[in-house]
TrEMBL record:
Residue span, TerD domain: 6-187
GO process annotations (BP): response to tellurium ion
Name listed for the protein in its UniProt record: Chemical-damaging agent resistance protein C
InterPro entries referenced in this protein's UniProt entry, alphabetically: Stress/Tellurium_Resist, TerD
């Protein structure tokens, strides 16, 4: 097991060197549903400008918008059942070529239609979100969603912030109950 795995509550273990070499990263989301159940998790990325808002709607990469306008954030497609082995949803990010208007990426995992279906992460048995540095295949973040965020319906699990020397990776562990729409409302520019 890679030693750099960041567990909830254990702080940041990513070294400055690791941060400087971050170039291609992958978000992997996996889950299993108990027999007879149905629960749909979604991984999303908000690409934010200087003002902390989306430069345009297309910079919100999710199941209905799989590729960012610069082509550097690619969602490999919605999975609604979690029935695959390993990562059920993946997002690939190519940091060096992201549009200069983007200053920050925010990563969210959410449960689809959680409020109406009365779902939360605690109803899952094996649900995780991870971030992999593709240059050395090491996980730089790995959270167990069902254990650590059992009451929540979304988790903002990481940020990548553009700095002069490159992109800084910041694990976050903010569980919420505002729905994916709550994040859209927060990041969409005011008219
Ligand atoms: Ca999904
Ligand atoms: Ca699965």
């Amino acid at each position: 097991m890679p030693t750099e795995i960041i567990k909830k509550g254990k702080g940041v273990k990513l070294s400055a060197e690791d941060n400087q070499i971050l170039s291609k990263v992958k978000v992997g989301l996996g889950w299993e549903v108990r027999k007879g159940g149905q629960l749909d998790l979604d991984a999303s990325v908000f690409m934010l400008g200087e003002d902390g808002k989306l430069p345009s709607d297309e910079y919100f990469v999710f199941y209905n918008n799989l590729t960012s306008p610069d082509g550097m954030v690619k969602h490999k497609g919605d999975n609604r059942t979690g029935d695959a082995e390993g990562d059920d949803e993946e997002i690939l990010i190519n940091l060096p070529y992201i549009s200069p208007v983007v200053k920050e990426l925010r990563f969210i995992v959410s449960i689809y239609d959680a409020k109406a279906r009365r779902h939360n992460f605690g109803q899952l048995e094996e649900a995780y979100i991870r971030v992999v540095n593709l240059s050395n295949s090491q996980e730089i973040l790995h959270y167990d969603l069902d254990a650590d965020f059992s009451d929540d319906t979304e988790v903002e699990f990481a940020r990548l912030v553009r700095e002069a020397t490159g992109w800084k990776f910041l694990p976050t562990e903010r569980g919420t109950k505002i729905g994916l729409q709550g994040y859209v409302d927060k990041f969409i520019p005011e008219l």
